[in-house]
Amino acid sequence: MFGLSVDDMAYLIAIVDDEKEEGELIKGLVQNYFAEYPDKPYEVSIYQEGGQLMEELAGQRYFDLYFLDVEMERQENGIELAHRIRSLYQEPVIVYVTNHLECAPEAFEVNAYRFIPKRMLTEKLSDVLDHALAVIDQIDQRAYVVDTPDCAERILYKNIVRIEKDGKYINLYHRNGTCRERKTLTEVMSALASAEFIYVDKSYIVNLRQIESIQKDKLVLKDGSMLRISRPRYRKVREQLIAYWRREI
Question: Is 7's pLDDT higher than 50?
Fold first, then answer.
């Protein structure tokens, strides 16, 4: 998982603030912003508890952008919540909203994209959205191009599930089907040039975001399929996967 919505068209935005009025204020400002861009579809969801958001994420709900309140008093704060989000997604775009500027250094330890004082929300939110959506668009558009004599196809990284060797060809399984190309796995891995893809044995490359769990010598993928990990690669695969989940790569 990568923190990007499964909806290729709409921006999905989550707001977490234990004060209902504050959450509604941010939502209203976001709505005002998108009213100026009718060609940009979006959805906004508000949560008053981080646990509610995490339940949604565990149920395969994705968001492109998170507005987190740093100082939620009745539960974990926004910094702690960000660590939990990053345990699931590699590149969530997180914006902190707070009255406590002294929290800024700690916030940036979890790669917060921006830090907005609550008293400056109205003034700053539009500029933050301009830049955040540009970042989201850039991440969202990374793609692998399959080029064969019969056709050319552009497949977003986030949609790639796994790639397998098939003689002199590779079969690339993605969210919308399968395509075939005369290449080696080494050539494909070089073209991808991304730490989110790993070898699980000499015949398979897997997208880390598509892994649900690791069970003994097998990977369980989100589409329900299972792949065996070769014994020589098991330790490295496990380490990379755990590091990915903990946002260490």
Answer: no
At a CB cut-off of 8 Å and minimum separation 6, what does 122 contact? 29
User: 42: Cβ–Cβ under 8 A, 6 or more apart, which residues?
Assistant: 10, 11, 12, 13, 30, 34
3-class secondary structure, 121: helix
DSSP single-letter state for residue 101: G
The Cα angle at residue 7 between residues 181 and 123, in degrees rounded to 5: 130
Distance CA 3, CA 144 (A): 19
CB 97 within 8 A of CB 123: no
State the pairing for strand pair 197-201/177-181.
unpaired
pLDDT at 76: 61
Residues 47/81, Cβ–Cβ less than 8 Å? no
pTM exceeds 0.85: no
Residue 177 β-bridge partners: 174
Give the contacts of 105 (CB within 8 A, at least 6 positions apart): none
Determine the pLDDT at residue 44: 95
How would you label 208-244 residue by residue, b for 16+ Cβ within 10 Å and e otherwise? bbbbeebeeeebebeeeeebebeeebbeebeebbeeb
CA distance 57 to 149: 40
Helices (H), 75-208: 78-86, 104-108, 121-140, 185-192
Predicted local confidence at residue 181, as pLDDT = 93
Could you give phi then psi for residue 226, rounded to 5 degrees? -130, 140
Question: What is the crossing angle of helices 121-140 and 20-35, to 10°?
Answer: 70
